[in-house]
Amino acid sequence: MTRLNDLRDNPGANKTKVRIGRGIGSGVGKTGGRGGKGQTARAGVAINGFEGGQMPLHMRMPKRGFNAWNPKDFNEVRIDRIQAYIDSGKLDIKGVVDAAALVAAGVIRRPKDGVRLIGAEGFSAKKVTFKVDYATKGATAAVEAAGGKVDLIPVKETWKKAPRAE
Question: What is the pTM for the complete model shown?
């Protein structure tokens, strides 16, 4: 039978905290494991990538790629989620299901730059017409297999130059 005065932790369960900066005999005295003097011995050092005033390697390398200055932000909606809203009666499928209808039903919060249909299974509603900006092949196939239709909104490409009339 174990008594209360015989209870002990397992060996190695508690680790003693190392007290740094308490004399050279401790092994972590004087500089406290921070090395010599200078910037890195102080608090608040952030010199990752700094090369002593020389142009750092990451800035010497050439830039790659392209970042759009006005990227489009679409709502991505899964078709099985739309099916759940149709089943609960929140989404009316008599008319065209577009961004405004999805906002009214509470499927999406705001229309943003448009709607993308994604997903490939879980859709069974009959004769639903979607008017969206983009739809994956799987989502289009699932809607058409159920007897519906997906109309894509044409993309307005204002950045292309108009052909010159000569």
Answer: 0.57
